[in-house]
Specification:
Distance between the termini: 10 Å
Order of helices and strands: HHHHHHHHHH
Structural class: mainly alpha
Radius of gyration: 18 Å
Strand content: under 5%
Helix content: over 70%
């Protein structure tokens, strides 16, 4: 099954998510610097979410570059990822407007956790659809230490929001910093590989 429509659809959805998220930002009522002060929590939440969406877009792009074929299960796994990503504007607005209170922060962390889980599932379904453990993608992913560490930090961040939301915020920023530089494992595996060999469908 061709991956072209999957790429195009996913790019479009992520672009819409970013658009919705920025539309949630409201201009301050005032023309001086002090008028910006109430909007700072929402702006910071927006920046964090934008970084996360950028990370997912980058890694999704690299993932599909190394993918040779997909199947119906892959399509559903990709939709599962897009579902959780589509909730980011809602939880971003809720957390920002309520100045990082415990419940909104915990829900934000939970959505980020589920995005990471969904991306992990997508990787596994793509691996199963092509060559499993013998594929170039499998070699690039390896034991996925960064992915496992991220899941651990997300899982810890959710309950910690009820103890001290600031700890959750720090953990989320740490995860963003871990992934801020695009994951080079897949890209390095594709260096020097002709384009027709990267994407050639298999019977």
């Amino acid at each position: 099954m061709s991956k072209t429509r999957l790429e195009a659809f996913s790019d479009g959805v992520i672009a819409i998510i970013i658009t919705i998220m920025v539309l949630e930002l409201h201009a301050p009522h005032g023309a001086d610097w002090s008028a910006l002060r109430p909007a700072v929590p929402s702006l910071l939440a927006y920046v964090l979410s934008f970084v996360f969406l950028g990370i997912y877009w980058n890694n999704h792009h690299h993932l599909l570059q190394a993918t040779e074929r997909i199947n119906g299960v892959t399509l559903w796994a990709n939709l599962h990822l897009l579902f959780w990503l589509s909730l980011i504007p809602f939880v971003t607005s809720w957390m920002g407007e309520n100045h990082y209170e415990s419940v909104p922060t915990a829900v934000y962390g939970f959505v980020m956790l589920m995005c990471a889980v969904a991306f992990t599932i997508l990787i596994r379904t793509i691996l199963a659809a092509q060559h499993g453990l013998d594929s170039r993608l499998a070699a690039a992913v390896g034991d996925d230490r960064k992915g496992k560490l991220s899941l651990l930090l997300y899982a810890a961040a959710v309950p910690l929001a009820f103890l001290r939301p600031a700890i959750t915020d720090v953990l989320l920023v740490v995860v963003a910093l871990i992934w801020f530089v695009p994951d080079s494992r897949i890209e390095s595996r594709l260096q020097g590989v002709p384009e027709h060999e990267r994407v050639a469908p298999r019977a």
